[in-house]
Amino acid sequence: MNHLNLRSLTFYGVAISSVLLLFKVVTAYGETNLKAPPAVNSQYRLVFDENLPICEKSDVLLLSVQQSGVYLNGFLLPVNSDTKASKLSETMSSLTGRLQHRQLSLSGKVPRDILCNIPGSQTQANISPVKIQIQLVDKRDFIGQINVSGTSRAIGLKAIPQKSNGQAEQSNNH
Fold first, then answer.
1. Residue 108 region, left (φ>0) first, then alpha (ψ -120 to 50), else beta?
2. N-to-C CA span, the chain
3. pLDDT tens-digit series, residues 129-146
4. DSSP for residue 57
5. The whole model's pTM is what?
6. What pLDDT, in 10s, does the model give residues 43-76?
7. Alpha carbon of 54 to those of 64, 89, 95, 149: distances in Å?
8. CATH tag for 43-173 (out of 2.60.40, 2.40.128, 1.10.287, 3.30.750)
9. Local structure of 159: helix, strand or coil
């Protein structure tokens, strides 16, 4: 039995060439059409255009975001919070959302104490549903809006990217 006849060699040559051509086409398609979403900074300082309707005075908040592809998780913290309060805030102010068309959208429930920066107990009665949308553009500061449930309108905000501790350490080491 001779396996190296012309029919066998032709069959294997066509099969290998077809696989290589298919691989080349799929690779070219992937390189041109499949792009990873842009990386989102991990921390943003949120400055509101006006006071939130549920607060007497709105202070600056820190939005911490974790990204996995287009899916986002985050939480809000007062800027001057200590470590113990920040750990409690992480569990109490859970936000989830997506990154679509360079727009960061998060929604979830946040304690009123965090939104208004009021020291006190964080109970279920004080939790407010929140929606945050931030347009990511190629500028230093990003523009967006926040809507707290129970209010009829959205409040404008400016999101200023912050260097996280890991980024600051890396830049100091170089």
1. left
2. 67
3. 899 998 887 667 788 998
4. S
5. 0.68
6. 889 888 888 878 777 778 888 999 888 899 998 8
7. 22, 18, 19, 9
8. 2.40.128
9. strand
